[in-house]
Amino acid sequence: MRASGILMPVFSLPGPFGIGTLGKEAFAFVDFLAEAKQTYWQILPIGPTGYGDSPYQSFSAFAGNPYFIDYRLLADVGLLTADEVPAVRPVGPIDYGALYNERPVILKKAADRLLAAPSPAYEAFCEAQSFWLEDYALFMAVKAEQGQAGLADWPDDLRCRKPEAIAAAKQRLAGAVDYYKAVQFFFYTQWNALKAYANGKGVRLVGDIPIYVSPDSSDLWTHPELFQTDGEMHLTQVAGCPPDAFAADGQLWGNPLYDWPTHKATGFAWWKRRMQHATSIYDVVRIDHFRGFESYYSIPAGNKTAAGGHWEKGPDRDFIHAMHEALGEGGIIAEDLGYLTLEVKAMLAERGYPGMKIMQFAFDSRESGNYLPHTYPRNSVVYTGTHDNVTTEGWRTNASPEDVAYACRYLRCKPEDLTESMICALPVCRTWRSFRWPTGCIWAVRPASTPPAPRVPTGSGGSAALCPAALQHTSHS
Asked: H/E element holding 442?
């Protein structure tokens, strides 16, 4: 089988309201994918973003981003009037400050209309999502009341969820709680419609979830026992990566670390809920930093860099078995980039989740791992780059001359042909069942039996860029 797709974040879609939305542009993109015989649309995390607007730091592991709600769809169902829909603005860079100020005002009008006469669909949504929705809505309402202060800076009784303070907040902020619940109903109504349309067109959605939650999240607030805290909602250890050739001081992410013994004692119930939710809204789920389940880098909270951290053992196969119990086979992509030990590789092999390979890493002299395409094992999902990388063309023009020259020698191409050659290279190395991404990403899954690769003749100009006929040949050998 051969399939293909495109990595396109929702926020990168063109749209008339300052950011990509779940409106007609998203449906048009699905039409484009279907007409181009594409099968996958991969996105970045869709959770509500906080300070810094990173999709990997969300207020909830379950909620959707209100910025993606399309005003026109709300107007279509009578929740906004034509006059309340903002004027069309030119497509350009996202102004998150403007969205932060505008969105709540307009969405409040739609929420007020819904809540004046709640629909059966809204009531059913609240019931089905009750395991996270009420807690998230109260968290957001308290956060707004606190002037958007981070959880660590809330008054002690609210931060630590003293029963009297929580009861008073629920009563005092009941209207705000209902607003945040209504906004999530808007998001998931539009998201589910888009997913149904995509699936009907033969397009599968590939989601992306961070392994860690944000330190400013409803997840930490409502389940502090699942994280490494001091009992007063203060983090004792935080997440990151050790120093390497790319970052002399390492990477200090600052996310809460899980208390894995507690998770294990509960049968990994929270993670099962999280993954069941993810697999209900996506067709395939990529889990970021998957190696952290085998072992994770722990940094004392308060450190200024990641240099003083150390490795701790994670839940390893116990977690893998629990996820298999909850989800069954398939549907998971394990982002296994970075420092991989034999133990990490054994954990991945236990269940057979496909890992990731990055073409740009193969030719980067700073990279200690072996990412050369001819070494890729079976069951690999291969990209030329990730959302953290520059584009392949950007790599060609910004990488060191030595690295570019090495890539050109390996791929037998001229520098000006390197971008196309890198995109086309993977099926040449072995016989692959390949998924080619026009944006410069390739998915490739090595079949069980791998006969020798066909030799691709070098053209008169010295380029070995693979032609469509050769691509088809290697796909079906």
From this structure: strand 441-445
DSSP 203-227: -EEEEEE-SSPPSSSHHHHH-GGGB
**Residue 464 corresponds to which tokens in the numbers above?**
């070995």
Instruction: Kindly give the interhelix angle for 96-116 and 174-200, rounded to the nearest 10 degrees.
Output: 100
- Containing H/E element for 142? helix 133-145
**C-alpha distance from residue 442 to each of 248, 350, 434 (Å):** 30, 25, 7
Statement: the pTM of the whole predicted model exceeds 0.85: yes
Please say if 388 is a catalytic residue: yes
Unique residue bearing structure tokens 């991969």: 42
CA atoms of 414 and 404, how far apart (whole Å): 10
How remote is the C-alpha of 145 from its chain's centroid? 29
Return the structure tokens found at 356.
């990731």
Contact 396, 411 (CB under 8 A): no
Joined tokens for residue 165? 């303070």
Bridge partners, residue 433, by sequence: 445
Give the Cα separation of 157 and 272 in Å (integer): 30
* Cβ-contact 447, 356 below 8 angstroms: no
Annotated active-site residue 335? The verdict is yes
What does the pLDDT look like over 147-187, one tens digit per residue?
999 999 999 999 999 999 999 999 999 999 999 999 999 99
Catalytic residue among 288, 294, 336, 403: 288
Taking only the tens place, the pLDDT of each residue in 435-453 is: 333 333 434 333 333 333 3
Model confidence at 106, in pLDDT bands (50, 70, 90)? very high
Q: Is the dihedral of CA 179, 181, 184, 188 positive or negative?
A: negative
Catalytic residue among 135, 335, 336, 364: 335
Orientation of helix 174-200 relative to helix 133-145, angle to 10°: 130
Query: Do the beta carbons of residue 133 and residue 66 sit within 8 Å?
Result: no
Q: What is the DSSP string of 344-413?
A: HHHHHHHHT--EEEEHHHHT-TT--S---GGG--SSEEEES--TTSPPHHHHHHHS-HHHHHHHHHHHT-
